[in-house]
Amino acid sequence: MKFGYVKVCAATPEIRVADVKYNTENIIKAIKESAENGSQLTVFPELCVCGYTCGDLFNQPALIKACEKAIVEIAKATEGIKTLVFVGAPLENAGRLYNCAVVISDGSILGVVPKSYIPNYGEFYEKRHFSILPDNDGVFYFDIAGERFPFGGDQIFISTANPDFTVACEICEDLWVPDSPSVRLTKAGANIIVNLSCSNETVGKAEYRRNLVKMQSAKLISGYVYCDAGNGESTTDLVFAGHNIIAENGVVLSESKLFDNGLIYGEIDLDFLGTERRKMSSVFQRNADDRGYWHDFETDDTDREISRTYPKLPFVPESGLSERSELILNIQSKGLEKRLLHSNAKTAVIGVSGGLDSALALLVTVRAFKSLGKDLKDIIAVTMPGFGTTKKTKSNSVKLMEALGVTVKEIPVGKTVNSHFKDIGHDPDDRNVTYENAQARMRTMVLMDLANDNGGMVIGTGDLSELALGWATYNGDHMSMYGVNAGVPKTLVKHLVAYEAEKLGGEIKKVLTSILNTEISPELLPPDKDGNIAQKTEDLVGPYELHDFFLYYFVRCGFSPDKILYLACRTFKDEYTEETIKKWLKTFIKRFFAQQFKRSCMPDGVKVGSVALSPRGDWRMPSDAVCALWLDYLE
Questions:
Q1: CA–CA dist 223, 228 (Å, integer)
Q2: Is there a contact between 44 and 88 (Cβ–Cβ < 8 Å)?
Q3: Dist CA 510 CA 493 (whole Å)
Q4: The pLDDT value given to residue 284
Q5: What is the pLDDT of residue 396?
Q6: Domains of the chain, with CATH numbers?
Q7: Does 601 qualify as catalytic in the annotation?
């Protein structure tokens, strides 16, 4: 598929206990259906050829021989189908019966993987029938219908079309034990783990199972395809719900409804997994240990469109937003509390513009002071009207400061900036970058000197999106003594402010609502003739919803620009044309590289999520790196 995606399937067919012929027909039917739907990997439940709940029928040679014949029949039926298939069956070898996953592709049996851990507690008594692996690890050989096949737990299957498409197997209980086989298999190079399972349903078990699969895929930085037995197994003492789960690095991509047999699909992103694993190179590396056995298999490599969807606002949770907002605000405020205590700061000084970022920074500072039991009047909030300040933003800034009960200061900067223009010989009618940046730097000087004069600390207001784009004046609003918003992207800032507005209510909510409805602007150029904001940030650098989308998938996931463009065009197809998205993606790439020098000397600031741009930890890039290679991807 496109951009490293692999389509996988977990298939739970209808079965009848011990009716091998019926089960074989349904398994073959499901294999063909999954292949027609583009699956490159299809997994069936544990012992599905005959049913997990056969009990002492597993001691009957007739059943075991029928299962062996069924496996040969299933393999023949896959001829011409370029799909890797895992089927569960009881197989005998050298006088021992094993609970096995048989690995099949394009008419051939590639290998047999036995279950490593045999449960023998509670409702499970598998040791009554099945043997465990030999004490020594490695790969042996197994006889099926007169032919020999690799047999053992250390087998990894690798696609001839995509060397990153590597698959290994464990069976049911193998996942539930402390030292799951998947741990060593992923360390040896497997990117996807499949699990053939027959896990009975009890109250609360589905949630536990789901969390187990999610966390195993997260811990192993892998794809995980969990296929569970369902309706058709014996209900003498137990019931089985067919709880199939497809996960990727801690995220459930697809999940079946309980008690609903059938096929579910998911698209696992191998490129993303590779990026994540490279970050942990000391752990995830292919093992040259010759005990293992690598198999090649062919897959249908048709360049299909993906069906997987991505959120428009990846930094904003789609559920539990209130709880997440409270957590983030606590992280921000606790970071500031520690810095205030360590520096023995008597006051906090913050510039309040009437915009979103400074509103959030002020709200966080108020939280920190309340937690420390400090007087809110020791928060010195300053409005500094300049050439572009509108009546609305100035009014909102003052109303917010008054409503929060902090000290309010107004220090206009226009007169001082004009004096500075005269000193350096700049014509104030020339509204170039000097005209704009001089105001920002003057405001920063005012805040810094005010903090010095009051034994205080300047609180930075710039957010993560502005850091990514370099949308800040170097040594102006770029600089502070602690940046509380450094880890918060613009699309999330809005939600945090809205959350605090609802929580605090009253006059605070009223003014915060007005700020939320104000266009984003640095207000460094004069208003229009009607007194409205003339300089609109998103007209100049592009929509923040697009830039935050680009930022997340570029930094967090390591996606290439063409992949980001492809996903953005699918995600925002109703809002922007491909031409528009491509234009702003080019802007993002150019600015992200060109503005690294600002991030290289950014102030300390608290990290709140998985994406951060601190040069001390999360993002270390030379300031003179060239972006040509990344732009080439878009051409």
A1: 16
A2: yes
A3: 17
A4: 63
A5: 96
A6: 2-297 (3.60.110.10), 321-632 (3.40.50.620)
A7: no
Q: With beta carbons less than 8 A apart as the criterion, state whether 392 and 354 touch.
A: yes
pLDDT at residue 403, as a whole number? 97
Mutual angle of helices 561-571 and 578-594, in 10-degree steps: 140
Q: Which residues of 393-417 are buried (b: 16+ CB within 10 A; e: fewer)?
A: bbebbbbbbebbebbbbeeebeebb
At residue 536, the pLDDT reads 85
**Contacts for 207 with CB less than 8 Å, ≥ 6 apart:** none
Overall residue count recorded for the chain in this entry: 635
In the chain, count H helices and then E strands: 20, 20
Q: Which two tokens stand for residue 160?
A: 């001839």
CB 487 within 8 A of CB 465: no
The helix or strand, by DSSP H or E, that contains position 85, with its residue range, turns out to be strand 84-93
**Does residue 391 contact residue 531 with C-beta atoms inside 8 Å?**
yes
Beta bridge partners of 155: 293
β-bridge partners, 200: 240
Alpha-carbon distance of 405 to 398, in angstroms, equals 11
Number of C-beta neighbours around residue 298 at 10 A: 15
Question: Three-class SS of residue 322?
Answer: helix
Q: 267: which 2 tokens?
A: 């698209």
Determine which one of 169, 172, 198, 227 is catalytic. 172
User: In the structure encoding, which two tokens stand for residue 38, read together?
Assistant: 């583009």
The pair of structure tokens assigned to 488 is 């918060």
Q: What is the pLDDT of residues 4-20, one digit of tens each?
A: 999 999 999 999 999 99
Q: Helix 356-372 vs helix 490-504: angle between axes, to the nearest 10 degrees?
A: 50
The reported pLDDT for the residue numbered 141 is 80
| The model's pTM | 0.90
- CB atoms closer than 10 angstroms to residue 300: 16
Q: Are 90 and 99 in contact (CB under 8 A)?
A: yes
Give the whole-angstrom CA distance, residue 244 versus residue 252.
11
Q: Which portions of the chain are predicted below pLDDT 70?
A: 134-138, 281-292
Cβ atoms of 313 and 483 within 8 Å: the answer is no
Encode burial over 194-206: b for 16+ CB neighbours within 10 A, e otherwise. bbbbbbbbeeeeb
Choice among 115, 392, 563, 598 that is catalytic:
115
> Which residue among the candidates 46, 170, 201, 466 is catalytic per the annotation?
46
Tell me whether residue 500 is one of the annotated catalytic residues.
Answer: no
Of 545, 634, 536, nearest in space to 586 by CA? 634
Per-residue pLDDT at 532: 84
Cα angle 215, 555, 516 (rounded to 5 degrees) comes to 95
pLDDT of residue 482: 97
Least Cα distance to 608 among 324, 313, 365, 332 occurs for 332
| The two three-digit tokens of residue 223, written as one number | 């794809």
Backbone dihedral angles phi then psi of residue 623, each to the nearest 5 degrees: -70, -15
Closest CA to 549 of 275, 312, 306: 312
Q: Is 123 a catalytic residue?
A: no
How far is C-alpha 282 from the geometric centre of its chain's CA atoms? 21
